[in-house]
């Protein structure tokens, strides 16, 4: 197996809303908010659902990698319920090895409301359900050892069971990559994420806002210096400014594609990571990996949802 993804197994529920909806429900545009089951039910009662699909950040990346012809697997916790079965079926349809056995759980399969405003920005409200209850017993160390690279997501990290799952995965991995996922996650777990980035991970994906938050800075030059000093592979996406990859003292840059008909920014980072990691595991140059990541992210933002 080329890559094993470990992340939140979340059923994405895509809905179009206006700016006023966000204001009325005290939601901050372009961020992710964790909500409980009651808030999830309240919000969904106000929405018109456009599409429902098996999702989760790393799962989206893993599907992208599968579509590029790579042998990939995914571990994410779902309940043995209707949504859990649909989730598994959705991954298997995309030729992803789903390496988790569903069980009866006290919490339902997780869901994420993806609210798309007219400017194509997405605001996410996530009810983690049983996805956030993942622990070390859900991780088969032989599955981890069999993969060339393990890809983790910041969305999944939390104290308790998820931390133990991360620790077990990292200890048994041949190579580790992680996405910082969201400024919300960075702010919530800053000191722990910093330790992971500095000491545990080989490859890190972040957008400009996330990396600056991690190092408590407003200077992109400081982010570059920080990344160089790590002597690892740090990839930073910058929206219209393109993306850069820092490996040791070398910096590689790739401009963003122009004149795109942007429909929905959901999954842009996930598919960028898929393209870049495709390059890594197939021993393509860093420059070509950046180009592949940019190509996939450009495709996904011209359609609704996070699947090409």
Q: In whole angstroms, how far apart are the ends?
A: 22 Å
User: What is the oligomeric state here?
Assistant: single chain
Uncertain runs: none
How many beta-strand runs?
14
Structural class: alpha/beta
Portion of residues in beta strands equals 15-25%
Percent in helix: 25-40%
Mean pLDDT: 93
Gross morphology: globular
Biggest sheet character:
9 strands, mixed
Following the backbone from N to C, one meets helices and strands in this order, namely EEHEHEHEHEEEHEHEHHEHHEEEHH
Biggest sheet strand line-up = 6-5-1-9-10-11-12-13-14
Descriptive notes:
With 308 residues, this protein is α/β, with parallel strands linked by helices. It is 38% helix and 22% strand. It contains 12 helices and 14 strands. The strands form 2 sheets. The protein has a 9-stranded mixed beta sheet with strand order 6-5-1-9-10-11-12-13-14, sandwiched between helices. Strands 3-8-7-2-4 form a 5-stranded mixed beta sheet. The chain is globular. It starts with a strand and ends in an 8-residue tail after the last helix. The mean pLDDT is 93.
């Amino acid at each position: 197996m080329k890559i094993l993804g470990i992340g939140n197994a979340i059923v994405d529920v895509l809905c179009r809303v206006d700016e006023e909806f966000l204001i009325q429900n005290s939601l901050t545009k372009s961020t992710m908010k964790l909500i409980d089951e009651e808030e999830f039910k309240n919000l969904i009662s106000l929405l018109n659902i456009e599409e429902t699909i098996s999702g989760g950040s790393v799962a989206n990346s893993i599907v992208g990698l599968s579509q590029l012809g790579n042998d990939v697997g995914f571990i994410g916790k779902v309940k043995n319920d209707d949504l859990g079965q649909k989730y598994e079926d959705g991954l298997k349809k995309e030729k992803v090895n789903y390496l988790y056995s569903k069980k009866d759980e006290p919490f339902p399969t997780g869901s994420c409301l993806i609210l798309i405003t007219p400017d194509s920005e997405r605001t996410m409200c996530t009810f983690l359900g049983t996805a956030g209850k993942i622990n070390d017993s859900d991780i088969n160390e032989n599955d981890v050892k069999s993969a060339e690279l393990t890809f983790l997501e910041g969305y999944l990290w939390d104290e308790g069971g998820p931390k133990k799952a991360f620790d077990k995965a990292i200890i048994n991995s041949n190579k580790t990559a992680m996405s910082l996922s969201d400024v919300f996650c960075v702010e919530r777990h800053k000191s722990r994420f910093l330790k992971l980035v500095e000491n545990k991970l080989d490859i890190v994906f972040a957008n400009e806002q996330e990396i600056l938050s991690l190092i408590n800075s407003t200077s992109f030059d400081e982010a570059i210096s920080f990344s160089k000093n790590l002597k690892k592979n740090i990839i930073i996406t910058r929206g219209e400014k393109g993306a850069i990859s820092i490996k040791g003292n070398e910096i590689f840059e790739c401009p963003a594609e122009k004149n795109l008909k942007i429909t929905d920014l959901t999954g842009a980072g996930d598919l960028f990571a898929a393209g870049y990691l495709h390059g890594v595991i197939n021993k393509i140059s860093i420059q070509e990996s950046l180009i592949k990541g940019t190509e996939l992210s450009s495709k996904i933002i011209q359609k609704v949802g996070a699947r090409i």
